[in-house]
Here is the input.
Amino acid sequence: MDAPIGNKENQAETEEDRLSALPDDILLNILERLYLHNVMQTSTISRRWRHLPLLLSRLVLHVDEFLQCSETRTMGKVMASYCEATRKLLASTSSSVKDLRLIFYLADPCHLHSIGEAVGNAVQSRNIEFLEFNIWPEIRGTRCTEEHVMLFGQRFMSFLDACPNTFGLLTSITLRKLQFGEADMQTILNTCDNLQALSLHSCMLSHLHSVLKIDAPGSQLVALEFNRCHFSQVELVCLPRLARLFYDTWLSMKSPLLFGYVPWLHNIRVACALLSWQMPFTLSGCLPNTSSLTTLYLDFHGEMIWLQPEDPKKLVPAFSNLKVVHLYDIFADCDLKWTLLFLEAAPSLHSFYVNISRHICGRYRLSCAENAEKTNVLWEPSDFKHYNLNLLDIEGFQKEEKLTSYIKLVMERAVFLRNIHLHYMERCKLCDSINKQAASLSMSKFQNNEGENNLIRKQITNGSSSSSVEIIIE
Here is the structure.
């Protein structure tokens, strides 16, 4: 039987009282996970909540909240509302804010200048530890032409020139759909002298076949990201504090990266679905001349392997301190022996992750271009021994002779291997929607019971001297 209405109201009041009884630090932790308009609404709940928005240590001003609330949804009105709210909030917020993030459109210059001025005035009087501009183009998708990208690049550089003091306080910038002039990147880094993280998405240079060179010996930059950028190549001439680099989907014929002086670079992630006019390349030709690298992620997006196998000795200088390797989305029919070159080249490696893509949905294929034809990678490892590998982790596992032989091969080379984790492929809704019957049949292969898993363990360890290896199958 349903509770009486009066009892329900009393229960709701009791729950609210319990929440209000929590200390400020816990309530603030909850509020910092909400959208701003929800945060402001909580201040009207009761006197207990009224002061809390002024005590937030993390403040995110997202333009999409104003886009959703706008009746007409014109860009001018949305940005006008955003600017007004930004000015008022930053003027009234106490000095408790340590993390300030603004997400807005690269729209009318007067709105951009208003944001820059409001942020500059507010931050100078506070001890902000993290300040981010995350900037979106006002035109997206196929409607955004090369002329728009050129205009957005000019607009951003004008914004930078109009508010140099504000940009000098930023610790993170994310930019999208901009065309840079030859000297623009140097100007950005010189102006943003406190910048620690820079992310570029779908950006390009004014000359399509130009190399983006970054030479910033005084830069504080720690993290650098490129995503689908139209650079012929990125040459990191000098970034003395760079620690993390991510490059996803390059659109050039060359290897995407060249390294100069990057002594602290320890984490590199490179990902791409190779296109028909792109060629595989060797890692030794583009790796940094440093031994600081400890973690390497290479993602092939289920398409052609863009890495060309080579003599592991050429990789030893860069891989001497490499501890963790992730090889993502290797297409299912590809031979895996070539992956052992990482074991041979990295004597300190302790964790080796291999992810096999069995998707039929082509989730990483670009609609505007043709992917390279998948061809097998043939490479025979030498008879080496590895003494530090502790973990072999394989996702997309399936009971098949090729994989069993590969695991045995790794066990023969890695004499102290103690842990093997095998993960069956998770169901994919996109694959199912393409061909439900075929997907259902293929997925059923992965749903083994424990008896079948024990049989797989015996097949793997049969004839192996590594009797102490623990094999987890899930």
